[in-house]
Amino acid sequence: MSAATKPEHEPDPWAMDVVVLRDKHRPARRVDACEAAARAVVSLLDDPRCQPDGPWWQAVQHWENTRIRKIVRRADGKRWTDVQEVAGITVTQPAPDDDHDAAAVRAIVPAPVGGQPRAVNKLQISGTHLPDDGVSASSDAIVTIEINPMIEMTTGKACAQCGHAAQRAYRILQESQTQESSQKTWGDDDEQRAQGLHGHVVPAPQQRCDQVHGQLQEGGEAEILRCWRADRFRVRVVTPTVEQWQEHTRPVEIIDAGFTEFDGPTATTRAYWHAMCAPESGVHSEG
């Protein structure tokens, strides 16, 4: 690959910074961090501030209309506290046991590379590793993200690739919802308006998820998105066997350009979803 094709040589490259909390004494599990990263990315994209009249709309549109790039950084202590003041969304996912800390990830509103506040730019990028202990505790999540079993990635790289897969899954489901909405005439009651064309509202309580469950097969992907939103965008990150990876195709496949960690374009993650409304989780997200 010639130097001229690398991101740093592109005119005005943009990126979404994704900051992972790393506690040196009691680190989170790698799989929990990957799931929290995926959820933070989608939660930001689904936030009302990313709508056409919102303050984040133009930044997200500019970023998604160029090469979509995520820069994963790590922080702890005061640096983690400081980065909460930068515009974005934090998702915290409890650990399934007492041996690990909860995973926490903040997705930052996209900006030119190097153009973020110092609280972000000073954070370390390379060499982020978290313990690869155990499998996902989100077995009933609606969206599953698969990591290519034939490659090795740092935790930071894996978080970025899971974020890419979740983002693409969200956009596909959102397009289906938009198409469905264009064929319907919505009524005047508040809930119908809240679930209209964009549906960017605070996640509804579990009874909304229960109501949607019976409509999933009828409503298709548009209803899956509504149910995924009600479940606060939980995902399940898994590493299939080589045979499973080679045998199956998925509606989302991420091909990394190979700028870092790989020697060229490489399939890293895939995503798929199913018509099941998962129970409420303990995951917390905040702006």
UniProtKB/TrEMBL annotation:
Keywords of this entry: Hydrolase
Top enzyme category: hydrolase
InterPro entries documented for this protein: Pep_tRNA_hydro_II_dom_sf, PTH2
Domain of life: Bacteria
GO terms of molecular function: peptidyl-tRNA hydrolase activity
Catalytic activity, EC: 3.1.1.29
Isomerase as UniProt keyword: no
Spans through the membrane: none
Catalytic activity: an N-acyl-L-alpha-aminoacyl-tRNA + H2O = an N-acyl-L-amino acid + a tRNA + H(+)
Protein name according to UniProt: peptidyl-tRNA hydrolase
Organism per entry: Cutibacterium granulosum DSM 20700
Upper taxonomic lineage: Bacteria, Bacillati, Actinomycetota, Actinomycetes, Propionibacteriales
